[in-house]
Amino acid sequence: MIGDVTQTSLTLDTTPDIERRQIESWRQMSPAQKAATVTGLTRAAYAMTSAGVRHRHPDASSREHFLRVAVIVLGPDLARLVYPDAAGVIPG
After folding, report:
1. Angle 31-56/62-74 helices, nearest 10 degrees?
2. I need a labelling partner for 62 at 20 to 30 A (CA). Which of 22, 37, 52, 54 fits?
């Protein structure tokens, strides 16, 4: 605790000891290791997003899959701005 600021847990399902060890591991990582970790997590999240779109829209074209992922990743407004044909896959 620093002044009136209390430390809160990062997760609800991790014990304080394990969380402390995780934070210490992050602190010991080099910037390159941190960047590689973030890159890997970003790629995994993108792959899961793509898989979810393919699962929900199995008969869609590859372009439609791409646009649906763009809407999820960028949000509807930016996706529509960057890819005008995304308007066709944006609900409502």
Report:
1. 130
2. 37
Other CB atoms closer than 10 Å to residue 71's CB: what's the count?
A: 21
Mean pLDDT for the stretch of residues 73-86: 96
Asked whether residue 5 carries a pLDDT value surpassing 80, the answer given is no
Return d(Cα 27, Cα 34) in angstroms, integer: 9
- Beta bridge partners of residue 2, listed in sequence order: 5
Determine the 3-state secondary structure of 29 from DSSP.
Answer: coil
Length of the chain: 92
Distance between CA atoms of residues 73 and 52, nearest Å: 13
pTM above 0.85, yes or no: no
Residues in CB range of 69: below 8 A, 6 or more apart: 46, 49, 50, 53
Judge whether 53 and 74 are in contact, CB under 8 Å.
Answer: no
